[in-house]
Design brief:
single chain, 982 residues, alpha+beta, Chitobiase, domain 2, Dihydrodipicolinate Reductase, domain 2, Peptidase M14 domain-containing protein
Amino acid sequence: MENIFSIWTKDGLLRDKNGDGVIDGTNVWIDLPDYLAPEGLIDFCARLGFETTSLSFCFFEPSEEAVKLCFVHSEAATDIRLENNQLMIRYQSEQELSDLLKLLAAMDLEQAGTKSDVIELRDGRLYAGQLSIPTIDYPNDLAAAVPEINNLSDLWSFSGIGKSNEASPAKLFHMNIGVEKSLMTAGLLREICYFAARSAMYSTEIVFPVTGNKEASLQLEVLEGDDPILELVKPNVLQLRGRKENMAAAAYQLARAKHWSEGGVFGYWEQKHQLSQKKEPPLLFEMQWSDEKEVDVAFDHLKREEDLAGTDIEIFLSEPAEVRRRLEEEWRAIFPQVHSLTIRSAFKAGLHWLMEEMIPSLQPYKEIEIKVREEAGEKGLELPIRWIQELYPADRLIEEEIGLKADLVTYKLEGNLSHTYELYGLDEQGEKHFISSLDVPVSRLPYIDGKHDVYPASSAVRIRKNGVEEEQLIQTDRERFYRFYADKVLPKLRDAISDYHPGQGHTRPLFDRIEIDVWMSEEEIKLQVDEERVSALEALHEDLYFNTLDYFAYLGEELEGKPFDAPGGVHPFMHVRVGEKPEARIRVYGWEDKQSENWVTTAILFNEAGDFSKAALTNDGEEIALSIEASEKPDRHLHPYVNEWLNKHPSYRVLYPDHSYRGHAIPIIECFLDTGEEYDSPLKMTLFKKTIFIEAGHHSNEVSSTPAILQLLERACERSDHLLKEMNIVLLPLANPDGYELMTKLTKEHPEWKHHAARYNAVGLEYSFVRFQETVFGEANIYPEVLRRWAPDTIVDDHGIPSHEWVQPFAGYNSPPRFPVSYFLPSAKIYGIGRLSTGAFRTRHEENLDAIVNEISQAIRGTEIEKENSYWKQRFRKYGNEWLPEVFPIEEAPGIHFYRQPTVAPSYSTLGVSRYPEWIGAEIISEAADEVVYGDVLQSCVEAHIVFDLAILDVLQRARIDVKRQTVNGLSYERARPIQLL
């Protein structure tokens, strides 16, 4: 240390321990005698803490490497001087010593403009020789919001000291610490100094003085009393009271306490109490359903026919192929008088017709044309191309079976076609030949909204004789159960929850869950094309889930003018039971909606040893006392990959900001260049380094994002040894553990279904909608908490899309009506969505998005990802985009789709870039075709996510930031935001 004016730099009392150019520790030994207790040392230590991003409580411990600050009484002067790399403070009185320390804390280095070995206190001011040294101005008004303490559990919060409703890259330390003179000892002063240093470290702005400032927004008063206690006497006013002999021990605990998310005690008593209140919900009601098989209904119809001689019989049944072939043989034997008897599938009838009957006859042709009738129902939810959808993926099946390339199989949509399908072949001479046709029987029933109809394919018996055809529709087993569910179960559930309370259906569920078990004989086959399969029960699973959600959304609109987005969990379990009659069981579990609990910790008691003992809480007059104990990190995590990764990488910091609705601790992983210090300020780190937040597992059936972001971290650090010298990375590996828990149950029986029942949270809520609100859904709190703690420049949310066809016959055959665009088939191996703001910062966000898209395009160029994206783009065009471009949109960038349009990338207030456009630079979503996949396909999706995210890291790593130190209205550090990506 060569200049006394460098005390607040790394050439003075601060240091850069890990060599990344950022102050991350202190370099001082304050040799405070036991007979001294100058109050101004609190201000001095607050400045120490404010100037660093990390610290340990070692200011008062001997260290040969540190700059020693020592104190000598003097009758001549009060000053501080630099001697032999030590700071010597001479003081005439303890009060003058205190004043000197206060002014040193507020010293404005930018305006000092000189070098000196001595700074003297004269007439209440600092002087270097005859030069008056300026101190930082006291602000007339506060530009930044001060974190609030309305609950003692928020004193040490996940985001530092106090808690703010809104996230911000700026945090103001505006506190007054007052210690009653009769209590002040050197031991107590040391602990209060540590408290002040740590509190100031969490902030980017500070106002001096920290003592003797009754106008400060936060007040900590240390007063005489009986047994030691910390009380919140009113919002933002804390009192630590006790006897002189036990105050240092109490302050020791207070200064060192950590939030429960870090494995500490603070606030855990409330969290534990909240978790302990969760009980198994009561059974509201149970219903059973069974019916005769559609097979028996069809057979009975045949038996009732008086004259079947010479007839051609065509039957559609929703049964597996082996059942239909067996029935054909049996019924031909029973009815030998019929001319022909054919049993076709009633689910995806056109596809089965081609697969089972037509493909061998296509061998002679060089091209195939399939004419398809256009759907044109006025009230129907079906798309005009519904019958093309029901053929998917016929062209690829034809290619696999007879070698005719899929692009030589074309569809032609016609409005007045006589049949549902007409099949034509083009021979080597270019002549077109009619091959066959099919008419699909269709049922009709009202959609759940009461405004539209849906037209699912139906079972039927058709009898043709002498040119006359009679058709008898037969409801499939699935349709009869679905009608029962819609007509009986849902109205009963509506009645059961009719006495709901305000807020239910939005921030609290109407019921806990509905469990649906269905046993049916249905087709369940995996096709030899991509990840495609035929599964009528998977389609029913999707219908039961999403249509139930829609039922309550429409009910909310009817009753309150806004949808019930959190009705309760919907858990459809489908069981294939070949050849048996259909049955179902429905169990509905209730939600005991207690009066909203708002427990506030008003006091913390200490035991005789000075340790935390109990917390006193109140809730509208009700009072309880809870024991204080440290939180325990989970032994295991639900996701095996997360569990394995955390066990293998104990060096990374893992925190638990909240628990899910079902009580699962949700981890986040913080990756930054370690300093070895005890306390860190993520917000301050974000000021000096670029920061990215990456979320995975938001929709738990999108299975590749969780392993992807964990592998991403290793890959990124392998590529760049200095990555963490330039940026911080925050990972949320499993955002929705409740959904994942449900998915593990669902996949036991059907491991390759999409399982959208595990998409949203435990009560069917897209929980991002209730971020930044008081809610029982802890999973909705993680994203806001990360933004408060880290203020990231860039947010990436890794998602997924169906890996195979998504259809819902009882919702218009397409993917659900709640989605403005279609997701009925994969559109890419991976694509991107860029969230954009709407105000003054939109241009910057557009520029940043352009930079990201260009980087991702370059990263995938020439890779297998680009090839697969090209393949799926062609598929998406053929089966959707060329017919209905608005429903099947494509926004192209080189090698990848990247969407910005509102129908795909809607903006809403709980998105970071929409809520905080002034400081968040970009918010990106990736979508890989991963619902639900395994093995090589899963790893290809993981790789796609990694390449996508690495490109964003590269863009962010190249960006430049310029941190500025301001001394107007207090001392602050700030940088230009939103960041500019190049």
